Amino acid sequence: MAITLCTLFLLISFLAIGQTEEPLADQWEYIGIAVEEPGYTIWGSSPILGMDGKVHLFVARWPCELNVDPGWRTHSEIAHYVGDTPEGPFVFSEVAIKGDIEKEANDKTVIPTAQKVKSNKGYAPHNPAIYKVDGLYALFYIVNDGIEEHPSNQYICMATSKSLNGPWEKAGEDGVVLRPSSNTDHWSHKASNGVNNPAFLKRQDGGYFLYYKSEKARMGVAIAEQLQGPYVQMPFPVTQNDRNIEDGYAFMYNDRFALLTTDNHGMIEAGGGIVWTSKDGIHFDSYEKGYHRINAYTKVDMDQITVIYGPKNRDYAKFERPQLLLEDGKIQYMYVASGSNIYGEDCTVSYVLKFKDAAR
To answer: What are 217-242's pLDDT values in tens digits?
Structure first.
C-alpha cells in the first residue's frame, strides 16, 4: 500500500519525537594539558575569552613541594595565563590575587604562626571563577582565615577590573561577598565547611545568582540586585544530593539553569561529573551525567600515573573543578583539574576537553 504524504509526515514526526539528545558526558573530546607549571601544583582553571581574541585562564596554584594539602589552604594564589587558542599553549602572565600570607612569611615550607590563629585576613585565595558582567570582569574566589578552624572558616570573595590584566579591586570589606549565614534557621549556619566553590550567573530577567557549596556538600544560592551585593542566601540548599558533590559551574543549558559538578562518591558514577538542571535556578530537580572519568576520554596507564591527591588504589582517574569556556552562551571547552597526573609527572596539571557540538 502506498504511503500517503500525511502518513509519511506523521511517521517523521514520531521518529523525531522519539530521538534523544546525546548526553552531555558523551560530548567531550580530550585535547590534552591546558596548564603545566614546573614547581607548582595547578588546580582549577577558569576560562574567559578576552577582547583581544585570546583565551585567559585564572588558575589556582601553589608550590608543589607543599603537596596539595596543606598547600592549597596556606599558600594558594590565583595566577593569570593567556593562550592564543582555547587549546593553548597557555603562558603565565601575572599573579592576579595573592593571599595575606605573602606579607607575613617568605618560607614556603613553613605554615606561619599567623595561620594558626583565627584571623580576618584572607589567606590562600583559591578556586577562581571569572566572568564578564556589566562591562566589568568579576573574579570570584575563596579564602580562609587560618588553618586552626579549617574548613569551617572558608568564605567567598570577589574582585573586579576593567581589564583581564588588572588591577583588581576587591569588593566590600576586603573582597568578602558571602560568609556562612548568621541565621540559625538557615542550612549554612555554622556549616562544617563554610561557604566555598563559587559559581555565578546573571539572570536575563534581572538579579545576580551566586551559587556555592556548603553543609553536607550540597549546593546553595545567594541572590543580589547588584553585582557587588549584598547577596542574600536562600535558607535551603538547591540540590538534594545524598552523596558529596562540589565545584559547581553555573550556565544555561537547553533553556534551563544548569550546575556542572563533580560526582565524588557515585550518585551516578564515582569520579565522574553531574549536570543538574532547573527551571527557576533555585530548585535543581533533575540531573544526568555531565562527564565521565578521565579513562573514558583518553588512554590512561594506571600503573604509570602519579596520584598526587586522592586514593592511590582505585582503577580510574577523576576530573575535578570543571569550568566551561562559553561563547555567546554556547559551550566550547571544559577545563578541569585532577589529583592525578596521567603522564606520570610529580605535580598536578589542568586538562582541556573540547565540546563536540559547539553549536548546541
So the answer is: 999 999 999 999 999 999 999 999 99
